[in-house]
Design a protein that fits this description.
This protein is α+β, with helices and mostly antiparallel strands and 145 residues long. It has two helices and seven strands, in the order E-H-E-E-H-E-E-E-E. It is globular.
């Protein structure tokens, strides 16, 4: 069942325009696929002047990972804040996101998860063309138990 923008905004600390994702179209305990149209918004808060650099796609992926963490958490478990600790092996095939006419598709896959950190691989595509991919390590707040 799809998860809409209002539900996404309740799952992550980013609200208003900083909630970059529009919909979760698919997820399971290991993967998530989200859609976004905000890369075309002239008031996108990540814009650098008139452009939205493609590396901002990492922020889209980080939000998808955060939503995945919330959706796959044990029911009743207190949500834990996560902090992007590092990104690795990032490959970028475009300079900008704002000039892409198709919706962004954000895929993230949980590679490993421990008590204090998780590792995801992620990819962004538009119109079937990969825009960005990489891996991200997220450190989880140990005090949020």
């Amino acid at each position: 069942m799809p998860v809409g923008k209002a539900d996404i905004a309740r799952m992550i600390p980013h609200t208003g325009r900083m909630c970059l994702l529009d919909e979760v179209v698919q997820w399971n305990e290991a993967t998530i696929r989200c859609i976004s149209r905000s890369h075309r918004d002239s008031d996108n808060p990540l814009r650098a002047g008139p452009q939205l650099p493609a590396l901002c796609g990492i922020k889209y992926a980080a939000q998808a990972m955060a939503v995945h963490g919330r959706l796959s958490a044990i029911v009743g478990e207190t949500p834990r804040a996560g902090y992007l600790a590092s990104v690795r092996d990032v490959v970028c095939h475009a300079r900008r996101l704002d000039d892409l006419q198709h919706d962004l598709v954000i895929d993230a896959e949980l590679l490993t998860g421990e008590e204090s950190r998780v590792l995801y691989q992620f990819a962004l595509s538009a119109g079937g063309t990969q825009i960005l991919r990489g891996r991200a390590a997220v450190v989880l707040d140990s005090t949020a138990r």
